[in-house]
Amino acid sequence: METINFIEKFIIYIEDHIRENIDYDKVLRNMGVEPKSFITIFTSLTGMTPYEYQAKRRMTEIAYDLKAGHRRLIDIAKYYGYYDVDTFKTAYQKSFGISPYETERHLDKLDLTERLSFEIVPVDRPKYSSKYTHSESFRMVGAVQTFSLQNYNSRMKYDFLAYLDDNNILDELLRYNNGSIKGIIMYERYIDGEMELIIGVSSSLESPFEETYTETSEFVVFETQGIPSLAAQDIYQYIFRRWHLKEPRDLNCNFSMEVLKSQREFTSDYTRVQVWQALYDEI
């Protein structure tokens, strides 16, 4: 419940600073919150990063202001932090697919984002089966990408996965999969203000791919089948909205790990998807 309460409070913070360029890393650290942990939970619950949420909410408020018609276009643009009208028009067109002048006619067709709130629904019957396991740090080999935390969103992870799948790199990686965890691993972690994404396999073999080591941790493992981006999102929402409320263990969201197991391509609806949710050690 504390997790949801904090998210609700932070949404209020975003709403209060909707026109500003929020330094989420700095704000969260001042609040004593690990940015990667917060952004993982926020994205899992809302389907968007806090940066995306703020951008969508800002554009929604702009659309309502345009519809009201009480201020000039240049005044609205400056109020929401745009230095010139042309930049504002371009951003608005990119967001909604129409010019600001067309807003009044098409407001009911726009993809607007209203302020978020959460309904918590604890249930007795689990939606997904789960098991606890301990994993010592292990070596991974794979493909690595690094993103700025401000620009990162989960779509980039699955775009990278699809790219590797389309170019048969996942099949190549599996040739080196002699470690204890079988399948393609998607491993995210926050490092020095950036998000590092590794897609690879557990391996002790020499390979042409980059290598890294995971963290030792206790995990609870959930499994389902489906398109990885949709299946994992649903599991994460289940973890944070339901499972977490009934279990006494604290979630460690400083990194995330998903394992994909498939006889076919790894981006199809036949893919077996595991979410390995890290837990803090019991005291």
Automatic annotation (TrEMBL):
The lineage of its organism: Bacteria, Bacillati, Bacillota, Bacilli, Bacillales. Coiled coil: none annotated. The keyword Transcription regulation applies. Keywords: DNA-binding, Transcription, Transcription regulation. The keyword Transcription regulation applies. It holds the Pfam family HTH_18. Residues 8-106 form the HTH araC/xylS-type domain. InterPro entries: Homeodomain-like_sf, HTH_AraC, MarA-like, Reg_factor_effector_dom_sf. SUPFAM superfamilies: Homeodomain-like (SSF46689). It comes from Salinicoccus sesuvii. This is Helix-turn-helix domain-containing protein. It comes from the Bacteria.
